[in-house]
Amino acid sequence: MNSMTRRDAARLIGGTTASLLLPISASRAQLASKSLTVLTRAIPSSGEKLPVIGLGTWRTFDVDLTADNRKQLAEVLSLFVKLGGRVTDSSPMYGRSEQVIGELAAQLGLHQQLFLATKVWTRGKQAGIESMERSLARLQTKRIDLMQVHNLVDVTTQVATMRDWKAQGRFRYIGEVEKVLRSEKLDFLQINYSIMEREAEQRLLPLAKERGVAVLVNRPFGGGDLFGRVRAKPLPDWATEFDCRSWAQFFLKWILAHPAVTCAIPATNNSRHLQDNMEAGSGRLPTAKQRQQMLELVSAF
To answer: What are phi and psi for residue 149, nearest 5 degrees?
Structure first.
């Protein structure tokens, strides 16, 4: 199935059925006035608690800050914090995303409320140092909460610098993936995981749980493919048993119900989608039996 974002899905689905995907019709003013109690989970290495829904920035924040873009993304970021969000995840690979997050956070006075996560994506010690210095400058901060190695590029070299900088207080946490996780004590693991992309359940999630490592989940909607999969399908009545009101919440709650997951980081530049995502982090989560029921339902589509 071709990749389909929530916006694409909503455009293709008309009328009443569209509300099954995007049930929120409140104005931006109403959205901004609504508060949530978002679930939190502890980072095993420190005990610090993070909200279970974060904000990814791939593509969505890789823009020139025109007047319109600045207004739209400032609304998203400020609403994210107002609704209890903290974790923003970026990378030099995501184009202008680091710079946009840094500029908007400074403009809105949000640096203290955000948990800034980004990555290094280059080869060589000096190139890695220069990349991480740029990330600090672009994010307009003297300390990054979480530094990771993107796609394991020159991972041994970069992790050595990351450890030094963590000891200096320039990074609060460092994170990586399986082969490093097995040999070194790290704070975080970031992986792809969704109801139709479950490979992480085989080794990575159990390993993270075993070694006391926090897990960030990216691509929770399978790059948008999941919305295409449920196109024109009604949300099951039993979804209300775990306080679920949309397909986006259905997919996110399925992920969050896994005990090894710390935070899911769906990307969006839309205030209504953000509100929808954040609501997935409130209320009840599905039981193991309900998770299996959810999986069987989506697999049948």
So the answer is: -100, 120
Tokens of 278: 């954040």
The closest of 145, 53, 156, 139 to 92, measured between CA atoms, is 139
Using CA atoms, how far residue 229 sits from 10, 178, 196, 292, in Å, is 13, 30, 10, 18
- Torsion-angle region of 140 (φ positive above 0: left; ψ -120 to 50: alpha; else: beta): left
Closest C-alpha to 128, from 158, 162, 149, 91: 158
Exposed/middle/buried for residue 171 (C-beta within 10 Å: 0-12, 13-18, 19+)? buried
Task: Give me 202's structure tokens.
Answer: 């085989």
Q: How far is CA 89 from the centre of its chain?
A: 7
Q: Residues 244-277: pLDDT tens digits?
A: 999 999 999 999 999 999 999 999 999 999 999 9
Question: Could you give the residue ranges of the DSSP H alpha helices within 88-203?
Answer: 97-108, 125-138, 155-168, 178-181
Give residue-wise pLDDT tens across range 182-212: 777 889 999 999 999 999 999 999 999 999 9
Sign of CA dihedral 97, 98, 100, 105: positive
CB atoms within 10 A of CB 262: 24
Let me know: does 268 contact 22? Beta carbons within 8 Å: no
- Whether this prediction's pTM lies above 0.70 is answered by yes
Which residues make Cβ contacts (< 8 Å) with residue 27, sequence separation at least 6?
Answer: none
Contact 147, 132 (CB under 8 A): yes
Cα distance between residue 15 and residue 57, in whole Å: 30
The strands making up 188-192's β-sheet, listed across from edge to edge, are: 55-56, 87-89, 115-120, 144-149, 171-175, 188-192, 214-218, 263-264
CB 278 within 8 A of CB 80: yes
- Identify whether the C-beta of residue 96 lies closer than 8 Å to the C-beta of residue 59: no
3-state secondary structure of 281: coil
